Structures are given as structure tokens and as C-alpha cells.
């Protein structure tokens, strides 16, 4: 971006790094987006893609304008026009409008049942969207069925399998020794059994939905279980499950966190019941000694020397002391 464009953004009150076409979840409750919800689509973040499930709390809104944008929406995007209009895909095509998405995707594919894959990752992780409510950005790859009733849940289970993951690690696109790029061209080469030829297709689809429901049920407990955020991303990991007890206490209602503290001036009257009760009662009446206080001695008793001096004197009396001059 040139210096004049930066100055123009500053004059319009827009800072570098501010969200323009990718808005936080709270933005949908503000104008003009609350008045025109048709211009927003839900997109999951890369870390929100789990095995068969999607973390709805870790997502954002994408501004998608396909035709006839509302005047209020254009007014909200106007301060960012110097930046949006200079994008390479928009500047080189005079028929494109400055407020459009740089790389638009098919609306039919975005709203269809599909499998959402991480584009770049060290291990393939595929999430299931059977309702078509998610429309992710270019940070992910979509797998859409050819038919409206395509068994995408079955396909999600196969793509998450260890065998296909190993195949793609060897023959897929791996620009680095660990990272892989899941792109349509190489994914179309992945061998897998068609659902019409697999008698376990319905069983696999049911297992995928069961695991996805399990992951969604575990998500609210991430704040009180250590490393649960990593566990839910790995379909083969089962633990260890370590509960953070202090964090768990903070989630309890106030009436369930009331503690009882005994007043130090409280005295015991009578003899407690049970074995050894008299001994405990006598100990309860003995005042506690603070660290550093000198021990008390009974009245009329002579002061006794320390134990070390007493031992030394006994050795001398037995002839073990130093020889006389």
C-alpha cells in the first residue's frame, strides 16, 4: 500500500489491521449489519475445525455482497475503499466492484452439505456441515457432493481415517516435511471406497455424528479440564483427563462456594464423644505456641541447661573429657 493510500485510510478513521470484510461475532448486533443480516455469512476459524464438529464460539462473520448492496452497508465500507479498490483481483478487472470479495465462491456449494478441511496443517482434520450453515473463507477447503443427498458424513469419516491421512502424507502436496496443503486437485486423487459399495456406510456415518456430538458436549468443559482443547481435536486421543479443581470452583454458583471458618476465640465445653476424646479435649485447651516463642517452665523448677551441655557434662564425669593439665 502506498503512502497516500495510508494517509487516506487515516483520514477516514481506519487504522491498519482493523477488520473490514471479516468481522467479530459481536458486530452482527450493531448497525448496519443488524439491519442487513443477508450480507453476513458465518465462517469458522482454522482452530475451530474438530473431528466432524465445529466450535461455533470460535468463528467470525464475513461480509459477502453479491449484488445490489444496501446503501448503509456501502457507507460503512466507504472508509476502506482506498484499500479494497487497489486489490489486484479487483484493479485488473474493470467489471468488478470495489466492495466485492476477491475470490468469490459458488453460493450453491457454500450453502450445500459439505465437509470442511483445513487447507494447511500437519495432520488432516475434517469437519462436517450437513446443514450448510457454514461458509468458510479461503483458509479452508470444501468437499461438496455432486448430489443434494450426498453422504457427506460417510465421506467425513473416510477423510479422517489414518489410512488416507498416511496416503496424503506420502503422495499429497507436502511443501514442507511436516505441513501439508489440502487442495482440490490432489484431494481428488485420494483413493476411497464409494458409499454404494461399502456395506458399512451407514454405520460409519453414524459413528462420525456420534463423535461430533461428543466433541461438542466436551467444549464447554475446556476451562476446567487441562489440555482438553487439544484432546477434542484428535479423534484417537482419550486423555489424560486432569480436572483443574480451583478453576472448577470458580464456575460454581456463589451459594455453593460458602465455606465455614471457626472463630479462634471459640472454646470447647464438655468432653467430645469418641475414642481418645479426652486427649483431644486436653489438647484443645493448650494454647498454641507461636514460632520463636521460648518454652514455658513450671513455677519453682530450676532452670536446666540445654541438652547439649548436659550431655557434655556427663562425658566429662565419665572420664571422656579432655585430660587435666
Strand-helix topology:
Layout: H1 3-11, E1 22-23, E2 40-44, E3 59-63, H2 71-77, H3 81-84, H4 88-91, H5 107-110, E4 114-118, E5 120-121, E6 126-129, E7 140-144, H6 152-159, H7 162-171, E8 180-181, H8 184-187, H9 201-218, E9 225-226, H10 228-231, E10 242-243, H11 245-250, H12 277-285, H13 307-317
Antiparallel strand pairs: 1-3, 2-3, 4-6, 4-7, 5-8, 9-10
Helix pairs in contact: 6-9
Helicity range = 25-40%
Overall shape: it is extended
Main sheet record: 3 strands, antiparallel
- Percent of residues in beta strands? 5-15%
Strand order of the largest sheet: 1-3-2
Query: What pattern of helices and strands is seen along the backbone?
Result: HEEEHHHHEEEEHHEHHEHEHHH
Number of strands: 10
Uncertain segments: 280-286
Question: Helical segment tally?
Answer: 13
Distance between the termini: 100 Å
- Mean pLDDT comes to 81
Which structural class do the helices and strands define? alpha+beta
Q: Measured on Cα atoms, how large is the radius of gyration?
A: 36 Å
Folded structure, characterized:
The structure is a single chain. The chain has 325 residues and is of the alpha+beta class. The chain has a domain of 35 residues. The chain has 13 helices and ten strands. The strands form four sheets. A three-stranded antiparallel β-sheet has the order 1-3-2, with no helix packed on it. Helix 6 packs across helix 9.
